Amino acid sequence: MGLVLGAFAIRESAVALAEAMGISELVIGLTLVAIGTSLPELATCAVATLRQEADIAVGNILGSNFFNIAGVLGVTSIIGPLDFSADVLRLEFPAMMVITVLMVPIVRHWLVIRRREGVVLLSAYLALGAWVLL
User: Fold this and answer.
1) Where are the domains of the chain?
2) I need a labelling partner for 40 at 20 to 30 A (CA). Which of 56, 64, 66, 82 fits?
3) What's the pLDDT tens digit per position in 16-70?
4) d(CA 29, CA 88)
């Protein structure tokens, strides 16, 4: 019950924040809500990395992304249709695909994600965030 109430509160707060700031709900979802809901994953990955358990960190990220796309999107679209802006198909979806394609050589050839790759990935996220806000 607490999870449902928390999700409702996040949604209502995100909508109110978007309206107060005069920006789209999509931008709030891509930034504040996404970061807020991903912080537990970040903590899990950081602890796993510190304990030299990189497979847990990578598995957590891949599993979370797969579940968010297939599970969460699947369940919510069963509950009701999801209408979204065509802008998502022009910018955010291609950006997600680019990040996914960037991950292929990192994971396949090096089997190591070093600081350099981490900087590239974080920079890509920050660049998308800046682009969306402009």
Assistant:
1) 84-134
2) 82
3) 888 898 888 888 888 888 888 888 899 999 999 999 998 898 889 889 989 999 9
4) 12
